[in-house]
Amino acid sequence: MTDLAQDRLRLAVAAVMAAAALLWWATAGFFGHELIAQVAIFAIFAMSLDLLVGTAGMVSLGHAAFFGAGAYATAGLTVLLGWPAWLALPASMVVAGLLAVVVGAFAVRLAGVFFIMITLAIGEMVHAYLFRSRTFGGDDGLGGIPRPDLGALGLTLDDPSHFSLAVLTLALLVYLGLRQVVGSPFGQVLAGIHRNEARMRALGCPVRHYKLAAFTLAGAIAGLAGSLAAQHNNFISPELVTWTTSGEALIVVIVGGMGTLVGPVAGAAAVILAGHYLSGLTEYWMFFMGLMFVAVVLIAGDGLQGALERLARRFGRAAG
Amino acid sequence: MLLDPTFLAIQFLNGLQLASLLFLLAVGLSVVFGLMGFINLAHGTLYMIGAYIGLSVARSTGSFWLALVAAPVAVALLGMVFHVVLLRHMQAASPMKQVLVTFGLIFVGLDSVRYIWGNYSHGIDLPAVLAGGVSVLGETYPIYRLFIIGLGLAVLAALHWGLERTRLGALVRAGVDDRETAAALGIDVGLAFFAVFCLGCALAGLAGVVAAPVLSVYPGMDMSVLILTLIVVVIGGPGSLKGAALGALVIGMAQTFGQVLVPALASVMIYAVMAAVLLARPGGLVRARHG
Amino acid sequence: MRILFGLALALIAGLPAPAGAGDPIRIGVVLPFSGVYAALGGDITDGMMLAFETFGDTVAGRRIELIREDSEVKPSVGLTKTKKLVYQDQVDLLVGPVASNVAGAMRDFVHNAEIPLIVPNAGNNLLTGERCSPWVIRTSFSNDQINRGMGGWLFDKGYRSLYLLAADYAAGHQMMAAVKRSFTAAGGAIVGEEYPPLRETKDFAPYLAKIKAAKPDAMYVFFAGGPAIQFVKQVHDFGLKKEIALTGAGWLTSPLFLPAEGAAAVGFTGALNYVPSIDSDENRQFQNAFQEKHGRVGSEFTVQGYDTARLIVEALEITGGATDDKAALVAAMHQVSFTGPRGPLRIDPATNNVIQDIYVFETRQVGYAVKQVVIDKMEAVQDPPNGCRMEVGRG
Q1: Is residue B201 part of a domain?
Q2: Which of B103, B107, B274 sits opposite A117 (nearest CB)?
């Protein structure tokens, strides 16, 4: 399968998923809309991590720090400072992006398992700070976070159906935006660094600058997801910032297929929905979740999207 | 009070005891990682299973000593089965696939333990010889903690001997040094990996049963050590026995003295230490790989 | 926001016909059933099931139906499951959660949705204080309620200096604050306090050496779960109890942890809303029935579940099985009062927190078993309003 064919397949999968999401949205009840919003928010978070992990090869176990930064910035700006929510949303992305610049300046000096562990360490330090912070409610968290008032556009975001549609739209925009980024010269350089960092450096490429830029962009988009999560739950707590949240996002990316952007979206849907329904069936649902992860690697190999692309290749060969 | 020599001596022993446990946990993980680049996130699960098997053995036979032997053996067997069934096929896989599989095994392990042993916490009683305390500079210090320190040192010595003086040790050293060259020279790195992996499982199981009388046995004890163990591996420098020992010592002491001297930073101390070490020495304290 | 919520609920309430005599009464239960805290969710649920067997699972021809959801002890998950129970399953009332941070996430939603939530554990003072709600009723305890009396009690027993030690999170700080206030008011001195990190701490030895050096008359501690067992064993190993009395919030030697702690727990003096050795017919009947069914001692968590279910059954009997008028249902809960395993019990309409006896007990070796033996009792302990103002319809 050529690169072009692969790209078309991904776009087609994205289109099918968007259509499926819209169909689900149109037929869903109140709780269905809640689930749609949850999946879409986590999909945004996972796509931002995929830019790091899949495209640039930077495996972070501290990405929740930026998700949390976005959520806490939204809570702080709206609840504590009284900003309107529509303004807090972009401001939260800036806050998360700035935090990513600072963290990234240290982290991009390391690679491989050392990069994983330093992002974990910084993430846990952010968690420890928020857990003890009186301003942000400590481990009790903070409630009463409003959603933007988009009455002028005829939207009432407090209605789950309007909110989920808005989040779905944002997820689609993030996907299209990140697709552009990955396909751009900037994205090509990141992919080159992923393939062979030493070679890129020998070619005179300022590798660290590129890595820092990717880290910052991914952080800002994670901040967007965090801000949306805060608005969705009307509540924040340090749980959002634990390393297990980062771990879940990483799992979602791997399950869906690294470096494919659409894969992590499918992964978010699969993992969240499987968890939701399995936990209603048995108290040992984590057992089956664990088996599912093992099965994905054994059967699908490179995640759901990776398996689809392999199938397409095989089919293509057979047809050709 | 804080500069009182007795107080400091007691805290030093506490740090040493924690370091000893962490060393048992980290050394297998570290060498396996150094040898094959294999990341086993389910290492904490092996520790938990070791503790539970030790619990069952101690309960049914009434002998802690038997538990101390049976748990590592049982966990090593379990590791062997997993290696043959699953991990053998994963060695060549990308690290991210290994992460996903071993993460899945964490879930499977936790629920299996809950299913077999239930949701409640358990304790293991010590034999009379290890119970009670001795006087250290006029303060009571539990004998069992000294036993843990001694055990850690004994394992360190045994591993050092094994690595320097045995054929398997030579294979492992060659494999960690330069995997490709070793393989080209006809050294079966896969076999060395298998042996080290099983030994690492046994040591994790041993750590579980050793920790049980002090830290108790409960579902979730796996996650309580996973991160700490990974930190020790990374700080020490993966693939090195010396590194695992040094990393365990640094984290044991940082954790213990951090809690006493700067309580406000207790929860971030080990992370701050790791970040500082990695920024100063990006490959960990001890560099194992020369190639 | 409120209007919308009302609208949303009117819509979903409008779809099915109003609950008739034959429809089941649906109770949504949000508790941890997986992972590390599964034991607590299990104990509370077992207690509830026993109460429905004992006091009836059918009121006015309507069967009581439980729909269980796993909170995973995560606030966001607890909230999602709550929304599922309300929107999709259309439950009549909710029971949960165990952890206070999950309760914090659920609180605003149930407040705005005006669905009664009966809390069978989470003890955060704010939940029946500043952040109280007419729709949030607590049958368990507040952190303040358990510990408030112990400062004065310890001072009366001759203790003059206290060292405080608790896990570093809201519950730990609230419990220590309660003791600190009453102990210093009585004239005692706090000679030190430490708050070890909640999850990271496994070895308490560094803190124990520090406490030993401070030479207090007693230490007052709060730990639960794994840390409780670790702490008890380590205090015992270091021989600390010979010099310093071990006192604290009673969960330290809960029946859940006592089998693992064994003889190391002997000598602890604690305060709690229930211990299995309470000498009353109601408690004996409860323990006999529970032990026969489950083969283990009913814990304070079990009793909280048991009393929660009984409160629900008795309130439903007052409303004649009607659940559509939530305000009437809550009002009925305010009218209920009974003597359960832990003694006389009722809900304080001013805060919606339970009014109950608090027991002071000592953990002793009794024959071959280690038991919590009641040595004193504080009757009908009632929380002050703590900033609670019940206003219907304010977020």
Answers
A1: yes
A2: B274
Q: What is the pLDDT of residues A21-68, one digit of tens each?
A: 999 999 999 999 999 999 999 999 999 999 999 999 999 999 999 999
Residue A235 lies in a domain: yes
Q: Measured between beta carbons, which residues in chain B are less than 8 angstroms from residue A281?
A: none
C109 or A150: whose pLDDT is higher?
C109
Q: What residues does each domain of chain C span?
A: 2-141+281-355, 145-272
CA atoms within 13 A on the CB side of C79: 26
CA pair distance B97, A251, nearest whole angstrom: 10
* CA distance, residue C209 to nearest chain A CA (Å): 25
What percentage of chain C carries pLDDT values higher than 90? 85
Question: Cβ neighbours of residue A147 under 8 Å, at least 6 residues apart?
Answer: A85, A157, A158, A163, A231, A234
Q: Which of B82, B97, B48 is nearest to B211 (CA)?
A: B48
pLDDT digits (tens, 9 = 90+) for A235-251: 999 999 999 999 999 99
Number of domains in chain B: 1
Residues A143 and A232: their CA atoms lie apart, in Å, by 11
Q: Cβ–Cβ of C169/A158 closer than 8 Å? A: no
Would you say the CATH fold of C145-272 matches that of C2-141+281-355?
yes
Q: Token digits for A76? A: 């702080």
The CATH architecture that domain C2-141+281-355 belongs to is 3-Layer(aba) Sandwich (3.40)
Number of domains within chain A = 1
pLDDT at res. B87: 81
- Hey, of A60, A118, A281, which one would you mutate to test binding to chain B, going by the most B CBs within 10 A of its CB? A118
Q: pTM for this structure?
A: 0.93
- Across the interface, do A143 and C107 touch by the CB < 8 Å criterion? yes
ipTM: 0.92
Residue B132: closest C-alpha in chain C: C237
Residue numbers in C near B123 (CB within 8 A): 229, 233, 259-262, 264
* Closest Cβ opposite residue C203 in set B14, B219, B270: B14
DSSP string, C27-63: EEEEE--SGGGHHHHHHHHHHHHHHHHHH-SEETTEE
The torsion angles phi and psi of A172, rounded to 5 degrees, stand at: -65, -45
A285 and C70 within 8 Å at the Cβ level: the answer is yes
- Position C198 scores a pLDDT of 82
Which of B103, B227, B238 is the closest to A293 by Cβ? Answer: B103
Categorize the per-residue pLDDT at C390 as very low, low, confident or very high, splitting at 50, 70 and 90: confident
Structure tokens at B216: 């108790």
Out of A5-14, A214-223, C336-345, least confident range: A5-14
Which chain B residues contact residue A249 at CB under 8 A?
A: none
| Cα separation, C181 vs C215, whole angstroms | 21
Tokens of C270: 């604690």
Q: With respect to residue A245, please indicate whether it lies within any of the assigned structural domains.
A: no
Q: Which CATH class is domain C145-272?
A: alpha beta
Best probe of the C interface among A139, A142, A228, by most C CBs < 10 A, is A139
Residue-range definition of the domain harbouring residue B174: 5-280
In a domain, B152, yes or no: yes
Answer yes or no: is pLDDT of C2 > 50. Answer: no
Residues A202-223 have a mean pLDDT of 96
- B115 touching chain C per CB within 8 A: no
* Contact assignment for C226 to B125 by CB distance below 8 Å: no
Low-confidence ranges of chain B (pLDDT < 50): 290-291
- Give residue-wise pLDDT tens across range C267-311: 999 999 999 999 999 999 999 999 999 999 999 999 999 999 999
B289: in domain: no
Q: What is the CATH number of the domain that holds B182?
A: 1.10.3470
